[in-house]
Amino acid sequence: MNSEVTKSLNIGICGLGTVGGGTLALLRENSGEIKHRVGFDLRVTRVATRTLEGKDLLAIEQVSTDVFDVARDASIDIVIETIGGLDPALEVIKEALSRGKHVVTANKALIAEYGNELFALARQNNVALAYESSVAGGIPIIKALREGLAGNKINWLAGIINGTGNFIMSEMASKQRQFDEALKEAQDLGYAEADPTFDVEGIDAAHKLTILGSIAFGIPLQFNKTYTEGISHITPEDISYANELGYCIKHLGIARQSEKGIEMRVHPTLLAKSRLLANVNGVGNAVLVHGNMVGATLYSGPGAGAEATASALVADIIDLARHIKSGISAPVYPALGYVEMHDDLSVIGIEDIEAEYYLRIPAVDRVGVMAKISSILQDHDISIEAVIQKEAISETVPIIILTHTAAEKRLNQAIVAIEALADVTGKINRIRVEPFHGEAT
Predict the structure, then answer these.
(1) Same domain, yes or no, for 282 and 170?
(2) Reduced to 3 states, what is the DSSP secondary structure of residue 55?
(3) Which of 153, 208, 250, 260 is catalytic?
(4) Domain that holds residue 213
(5) Is 260 a catalytic residue?
């Protein structure tokens, strides 16, 4: 499209649910400001959604229930995919890219699992697949990593990147609620789905971490190698014991480059209460990034919702519009921030990491039990930093141990040996601890 003759840009939206509807509303409400930013009108001329009833489709020239109509419409310049899920979103995006259309999506699952293939298809057709809104809603974390911090070598990043999980953990901490009670509250308020598996088991966060880690370290998207652990096993007692030790528990996504390779993991984490991420509560999201030159930078804000996600979607549309007006046919920035990926870096398994650990061990209240546990830990090169031994409940007592840094593989072996003791009455609850050395507090 020649910048001298550009009068408008035609946009088609696939899917008009919460996010799609929010995007349409934002484009309408801020149309004047957007025109000043790009120099011409951005017009939504076509919409496809499964259900037309109750939708505000005023002034939309073409409306249908077939999302492929948008991808195949020769007059559409940019396709917005807000269908969600993989089917039919994946095929719709492939169709649009193959026909030389730019695509903007909020679909983190699709990017994390099929992004390598889709970005290659976009390059072949000299168009962009933009995805800022796929991670952390309205927080511009992808732009920050890919562009703002491009001069840095990223050492690590950590984030609260699922608002539902953070809300549940915040409710458990502030009101001493059981997990099931906090989950029901999240569902009643509309933060959690009827089937909350993606949120509470860490799958949603793992999709997002896969994307962030790829941009941070220049590695291909590898969702299948991201370790994922949920929060359903966390109890109010764990939160209370962590508090006694000076920590809170957050469900974090962590990506780090170590001597062994790239760590990619989502799991409950003990954080010192003074740390920045420890003080992000409710449904908010936050991502902390540590670069070798800039140090630690924190990005915080709404991680979901129609307005926040639409804000990020429209930011991508504006970027594309500016490129088009400038006569740039291909995107300026590589999709994942690297023209040449680091093929020499591999994602390591969870057993290959080293961390500090919190252990809650249910044991018989008997002299010598602690000595046996300490001996097993010592045999596996695991040293103890702190111990809390609570009053007995019936004949058992919870023993809380905080370890120094240890190899996860060795800790797993020690846990098996401790659980085999006759005086240990159940499974050990293990939570990783992250000090995040180098973080500004």
Answers:
(1) yes
(2) coil
(3) 208
(4) 148-302
(5) no
